[in-house]
Amino acid sequence: MTNSRATTKVRLTDLAKGVVDMVPSAPLMVRHAPGLIHRPADARKTIGSVFQKHAGKHPERPFVRFEGRATSYGEANAIVNRYAAQLAADGVRTGDVVALLGKNSPTLLYLTLAAVKLGAVAGMLNYNQHGAIGNHSIKLLGASVLVYDPECKDTFDSFDAEVHPPHVYDYAAFDEAAAPRPATNPAVTATLPASTNAFYIFTSGTTGLPKASVMSHNRWLANMAGIGGMAVRLRSSDTMYIPLPLYHNNALSVSLGAVLAAGATVAIAKQFSASRFWDDIILNRATAFCYIGELCRYLLAQPPKPTDRTHGVRLAVGNGMRPEIWDEFVERFGVKRIVEFYGASELNLAFVNVFTVAKTAGFCPLPFKVVEYDQATGEAKRDAAGRLRAVRKGEPGLLISEISDRVPLDGYTDPSATEKKIIRDGFKPGDSWFNSGDLVREVGWGHIAFVDRLGDTFRWKGENVATTEVEGAFDGLDGVDQAVVYGVEVPGCDGRAGMAAVTLAEGAEFDGKAVAEHLYRVLPAYAIPLFVRIIGEVEATSTFKTRKVDLRDEGFGDVGGDPLYALRGRSDGYVEAYADYAADVAAARAPRG
Question: What is d(CA 532, CA 521) in angstroms, rounded to the nearest whole number?
Fold first, then answer.
């Protein structure tokens, strides 16, 4: 029987064992250690320069595999350079934004690299964000060029014409325009400082509509050195399989960073498929992959088959691997190393399982604190003197990270949104700390264990969901007076599923099919609540937060006599909740479509 409990204390012997395991990778780690110790913002080093350096040294080495076909570093670099030349012809300069809308493919990766080679920012649009949410995101980017995947045309068509940038292409049109352009490296790449912004990654932050978090080249290089070079430790002969969308930092920063740290190969899946996962791994000769916790659960839910063990994977990197499935996953699939990490798109530090300590979110050498928090608001709690108080080691608390010249904060594109996340004068006058919004436990030697997400967001399907965004989607629905949205735990699932407590207008009845049709139309699928509870009047605003906490604590299992509905899927909509619904969700049988 496997041990399902999280690690409660990291011991010196755990670190010693991890150090022994590092010995074969010592040369790679020595090469990348300076990138953690000294990373000047004005250094002439960027993602583009790292990529083209590999292309110059090893042009014949495979860079990307997709559906079994390989493209070498040299071939990929030539494509990227032609794409960059076309963007430059469209007026893209350092600091401009190129909006990219696409499912995973080599083309999307090449476009991303082309943008950052010019010193432009690749704005990674989430193809699940349709209509008003997509319009908001595009306006936030202020892009001069948008290139979209034909497979995302439905999403593109849902955007209003007035938010379109001056130049818009689908892949075919962009390829045609770029074909005659020169394949030489752009001269500007060698001049760019590491402080240049590289990506805008959309995140819910804590409240409201999606925000664009900033990923600078400098911070990406820290990921490459710290997570890629020091923790993942790929060899140049390795292939990292990416089943997560490239608009996620797990894919674009962590996984691509690990690949470029070693000059290894990246294999891209168009999208994740639990039934075809190991077949695609084998087809693309992958030796590593990235994950989120839900992905691992879906793989375990599949019936056993020979490919569970006939692959060549030796390590996996990601976040959200729960303690209760850790051992089972390792034993069933024979993956020797789990490189769990903790981070967020907007956070200025990351924890990573450098020492391979099972069932932890990893280690961080940078300054952080775990402090007391207000359960009703999710904010850090101050004492009578106005200062924060750290919790005792092993106790759950709010994770905050120090902001300093050594560990700067990229934040969001909106300075006011960034400022809302900063805690000032926390322990002494003049200090600054970033509120992660997450509950963790410190377990010793710079390691933490993840506990939960706080505030007005919850995490589901690897995405941060803002409750206010979902509540806004209920506005205007016939018969709905008010909706309160929160995340609830579902046994056997990672994160929290959405649940809405809804008050109906007098005389109105709940139409589960119509409500679901509306929500599918205006929200990404991952943000649609799985449960709807029909309640009476919601308390006044002065106690609204407290009531929301009460509702969240009651979950879907303690609703008293309130009617409860569950989302069966796109076609069936919401139906009366039934006893096995949670098990269906855990086994990916619901919701469907």
Answer: 17
